[in-house]
Amino acid sequence: MRSDAIRWLMLLREEPEDEALAAEFEAWRKADPAHAAAWDSANETFAAIGDTPPAYSHYWRESAAPPIAVSRPGAGRRWTRALRRRPVAWVAGLAAACIALMAAPDIDLRLRADHLTGAGRIDSVALADGSRVALGPDSAIQVAYSGNARAVRLLAGQAWFEVAPDARRPFTVRARDITTTVLGTGFDVRMIGGRTSVSVGHGRVEVRDDGVVPARARTLDAGQWVRIGEDKAIVSGAGRVDLAGGWRKGEVQVIDRTIAEVIDEIRPWYSGKIVLANRALGKQRVTGVYKIGDPGAALQALVTPHGGSVRRVTPWLLIVSGA
């Protein structure tokens, strides 16, 4: 949520006269109380910084953009006033807001998680039954075993599971509304952006979506995958078995995906914030293999062929812009 709020700060600043963008922002903010809370937190942090750059801001690249005069219905709102900043102070303020929001620990996640990782880090987790988990960057899981069930909840990010067979106790992984059930197999469950996906390396799983009525279920065999969007639209397919869970090798293969979706794949590998400041660029579709172990280089390889650029504003903030 916090990263979405920062993204909106950037988009509203980059396209101040876009009424459709303003309407889309208002719809996002009103859609969920958590969205409004995230926006308030980002906006208050940004406003509190005011026109005073943080310490050492003279080492950051200054923005050449002119001051903003936002003109929209309801322009007196606090969020439009927050965008009216001098160029240097605006960039410094945005960077400091990103840093402040990054530094704020997600207390709820930490309290709920049994295992979690930081940006760019993969951990190997051994579960009590002999199953193993490769826990991806910026990811967290909660484990609940009982006498007749083995349940894991993916709280954030992505994880690869190698499940020890036990016919008496089915192994389930819950990610948002999606439950994956297996007896013994190797598979991947991911929550990237607003999408939830499952892919199978070997064995067989059942994927069930309880977020719709009636619930939908399908079986996946080795090499097959399914991706469920925020709107519950389903995309599925099959590929080479060795490509399942490719993020464990520090790479992501994409086929006909948007640049915005690929940036979502790269974000967990960067220890700061990545802001996509151009919606048109984000809608461009790409196919390729990207080495996500170096997020900056991956972003350059992703957007440069489409006229995009990547600017490092501070050590903790990368801004992806169009031509």
UniProtKB/TrEMBL annotation:
Gene3D superfamilies associated with the record: 2.60.120.1440
Transmembrane regions: 87-104
Q: Which InterPro entries match?
A: FecR (IPR006860), FecR_N (IPR032623), Ferrdict_sens_TM (IPR012373)
Q: Where is the FecR N-terminal domain?
A: 5-42
One molecular function GO term is:
sigma factor antagonist activity
Keyword Phosphoprotein in the entry? The reply is no
| Domain annotation FecR protein: ranges | 115-206
Chain segments annotated as coiled-coil in the UniProt record:
none
Q: What is this protein called?
A: Uncharacterized protein
Origin organism is Sphingobium cloacae
